[in-house]
């Protein structure tokens, strides 16, 4: 069974497809169908406020119509009103568990409201039934972004098998493998991501970081330089660029980057430690001592916070 056009539009993958809403399930008059079609036109244009008004008009008149409820819930989701989507779809789920559109919308809304396990469960069942790469990807993203991360490899690997062309999918799959200490598989996935999009900031940064940790400076350097060029204010890109400068012998440049970074992120331990080592190489021993004292202080603070938790 293939995913319907409605679900793809709701996932943001076919905006402007030109299709109109499927007929209402109930014996509605032409006016209600017109509201539904107009709502879809607004939805595809990104005019969510007017789309919501049209769908709410239909849902108010026909509260038992599943299609109208699903469209309204998807609009709520896009408007960051996920709890309203949960409240709308939850009572309709019994007897409609095989409806992939309902399960996708409800699963997404549950994740957004903090009920990630319930949401992921629905998405994974729906993805298995419909072979939906988007649903696998959303389930994997929820697992990966949970604190602490859950193993997202199976979901994201499944998404890659179904549709590897989804933007950002290879990068997310690589992150899942790296989170589970599978650096070699992560490298393969990151390389695929960069083949699809050489300007992928996260893939450049993460792959460069992995290669730098492996001591492969020449391979890591162009990746990290590009990441720094793309997002020069991003803290981790600044840190990795400083490491590249240090490993290349450009200690003064590394110090300049790190001095700016510790000023912007004073509670982040790693830049202070890196800066202390750079200062040693510059024979600025008093400065190095100061940074190491800061490192010790931050370590104590973090240890105390961990104890309190």
If you had to describe this structure to a student in words, what would you say it looks like?
- It is a single chain.
- The chain is mainly α and 309 residues long.
- Among the domains are: 1-130, Tetratricopeptide repeat domain (Serine Threonine Protein Phosphatase 5, Tetratricopeptide repeat, Alpha Horseshoe), CATH 1.25.40.10; 249-309, Serine Threonine Protein Phosphatase 5, Tetratricopeptide repeat.
- 72% of the residues lie in helices and 0% in strands.
- It is built from 17 helices and no strands.
- It has helices at 5-10, 30-45, 48-61, 66-78, 82-89, 100-112, 116-130, 133-145, 153-162, 169-179, 183-196, 201-213, 217-230, 235-247, 251-264, 269-281, 285-308.
- Helix 5 packs across helix 6 (100-112) and helix 12 packs parallel to helix 14.
Tell me the CATH superfamily of the domain at 1-130: Tetratricopeptide repeat domain
DSSP helical segment count: 17
The N- and C-terminal alpha carbons lie at a distance of: 47 Å
How confident overall, as mean pLDDT?
Answer: 89
Fill in the CATH topology of the domain at 1-130.
Answer: Serine Threonine Protein Phosphatase 5, Tetratricopeptide repeat
Give unreliable regions as ranges: 1-21
**What is the element string, with H for helices and E for strands?**
HHHHHHHHHHHHHHHHH
CATH architecture designation of the domain at 1-130: Alpha Horseshoe
CATH class of the domain at 1-130, named Mainly Alpha
Total number of beta strands: 0
Computed Rg = 25 Å
What is the helix content? over 70%
- Strand content is under 5%
The biggest sheet amounts to:
none
Structural class, from helix and strand content? mainly alpha
**Rough shape?**
elongated
